[in-house]
Design goal:
11 strands; 21% strand; 276 residues; alpha+beta; elongated
């Protein structure tokens, strides 16, 4: 603490984006916002017509995030270009750094908006997604100065991109505990998210006998421990599988009432789909 909360198409997004634009231009890049609010910087190749190598990461955050998540992959890439530019060196390919405006999906409940557009999988129905205040993605883009229909022009498939590479802080912390400076990613952890509803029966905390209760929270607690037990079992892939219960709500939520309804989430991830 204090953590960072920076969500898509907000004043904080603009502040961070403008700062990154300044760093990119100072490092010798042509840079600007694209239609969806991504910040894109380009360092020209030694010869015209060369292919493009892309790098970068996201500049939005989850709630109360660490300061290096995402931004590390943007800032380190800019530092590399700044060094190349200072030495007057060009690469045999165009080098492009993208600071994606949204990965986490905190504001609109839609994830990876900028990168999905570049990968050719943007769904125009997302433009009608609303944030907690009822503002649609379409309205927020227009207010930010973007173009709600401009996603069509961002598809980079078949346009000379030969590779994408990204540096990232470790979120393990396996390398940290092992005293190792760097690791190479060998798999991307696929994810599955589940919302669970448990229904019991409310009752008076002082008079309902323990053996007669249908306590939804007690049942949910056993389920939470089951997620931890299953994800930790060697038969489930050991370290290859992780499971997290990140949200849990009990109702009616009174200290003297047996919980009747509980909702919780399960996040399962693994680099091996079979284990997941």
């Amino acid at each position: 603490p204090p953590g960072i909360t920076r969500t898509y198409l907000t004043p904080q997004h603009r502040q961070a984006g403008d700062y990154l634009l300044g760093l990119m231009r100072e490092a010798g890049m042509d840079a600007g916002y694209d239609a969806l609010g991504n910040v894109v910087g380009r360092y020209a190749a030694a010869r015209p017509g060369a292919g493009t190598v892309m790098t970068g990461s996201h500049m939005d955050s989850v709630r109360d995030a660490g300061r290096y998540d995402g931004l590390f992959g943007i800032l380190t890439a800019i530092a590399c270009v700044r060094d190349l530019h200072a030495r007057g060196k060009r690469l045999p390919f165009e080098f492009e750094i993208v600071a994606f405006g949204d990965e986490e999906g905190v504001r609109f409940g839609v994830t990876l908006i900028g990168s999905k557009a570049m990968g050719g999988s943007f769904d125009p129905a997302w433009l009608d997604a609303k944030d907690a205040d009822g503002t649609t993605l379409r309205e927020a883009l227009a207010a930010f100065g973007g173009d709600p229909e401009g996603w069509r022009s961002l598809d980079r498939r078949g346009r000379g991109v030969v590779a994408y590479v990204e540096s990232h802080i470790e979120q393990g912390p396996v390398l940290l505990n092992e005293g190792l400076p760097v690791g190479v990613v060998t798999a991307i952890a696929g994810g599955a998210r589940v919302r669970v509803a448990v229904t019991g029966l409310a009752g008076h905390a002082g008079t309902v006998p323990m053996g007669s209760r249908r306590d939804a929270l007690a049942a949910a607690a056993e389920m939470v421990l089951a997620v931890e037990r299953i994800a930790s079992a060697p038969g489930a892939g050991g370290a290859a599988l992780v499971g997290t219960v990140g949200k849990l709500e009990a109702r009616p939520g009174a200290i003297n009432v047996i919980p009747q309804d509980v909702a919780f989430t399960v996040d399962l991830r693994s680099g091996d789909d079979a284990a997941r």
